[in-house]
């Protein structure tokens, strides 16, 4: 208890690169993967074409990924997120590999929205959470991608209207039938992170992003934006 109060122990850290993947995160983070079969065959441990043929009969993408996860752990009990990243790189899914690599090398990336809100609420009563804007945004990026994908076009339009993203980012979102909304949201988040890194005032840029998210009148986006503002000392 004393260690927790002193801040020496991190609350609910996310997965690390050498941890074994769990089904929920593996399914969520690999959702942008259009063709999972080459990825499965690149996983170390011995997933075979016969395994793939059996798995692809499952009725939904979630059930297929769940079956793949189960089979992979059977043939490779030491499976890790590092193996996932390497397999993605082998099948040329480099952008997705980088996104997952960022999540598992940041120990706070797997933290849930509720955990974020609990930490931010307790700190709001004392002092702002230390950390630069880039780290703060990355901490929330996984959940932001999920929720922005549900309100993609309105969010993108308003971010552009406020001068926070370039026209090219808007054009990428408006392309129809090429990517899922989740993939578009992931690309939008990557653009936002790059814009923040190049900003002369990263803190103000992130504050402006939060105001746009709050204006979406989307409950979860509002919660995340409020949590970020708490961490920046703005609430």
From TrEMBL:
Domain of life: Eukaryota
Biased composition annotated in UniProt, kind: Polar residues: 119-129
InterPro entries linked: DEATH-like_dom_sf (IPR011029)
Region (Disordered): 100-132
Name of this chain's protein: Death domain-containing protein
Organism: Amphimedon queenslandica (Sponge)
């Amino acid at each position: 208890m004393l260690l927790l109060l002193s801040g020496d122990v991190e609350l609910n850290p996310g997965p690390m690169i050498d941890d074994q993947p769990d089904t929920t995160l593996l399914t969520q983070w690999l959702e942008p993967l259009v063709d999972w079969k080459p990825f499965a065959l690149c996983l170390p441990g011995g997933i075979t074409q016969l395994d793939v043929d059996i798995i692809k009969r499952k009725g939904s993408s979630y059930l297929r990924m769940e079956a793949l996860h189960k089979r992979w752990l059977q043939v490779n009990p030491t499976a890790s997120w590092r193996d996932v990243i390497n397999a993605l790189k082998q099948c040329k899914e480099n952008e997705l590999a980088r996104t997952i690599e960022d999540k598992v090398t940041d120990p706070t990336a797997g933290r849930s929205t509720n955990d974020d809100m609990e930490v931010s609420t307790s700190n709001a009563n004392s002092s702002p959470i230390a950390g630069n804007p880039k780290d703060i945004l990355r901490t929330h990026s996984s959940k932001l991608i999920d929720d922005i994908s549900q309100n993609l076009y309105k969010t993108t339009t308003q971010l552009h209207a406020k001068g926070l993203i370039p026209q090219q980012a808007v054009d990428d979102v408006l392309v129809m039938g090429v990517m899922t909304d989740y993939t578009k949201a992931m690309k939008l988040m990557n653009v936002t992170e790059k814009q923040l890194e190049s900003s002369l005032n990263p803190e103000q840029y992130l504050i402006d992003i939060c105001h746009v998210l709050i204006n979406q009148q989307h409950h979860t986006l509002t919660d995340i934006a409020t949590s970020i503002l708490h961490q920046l000392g703005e609430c």
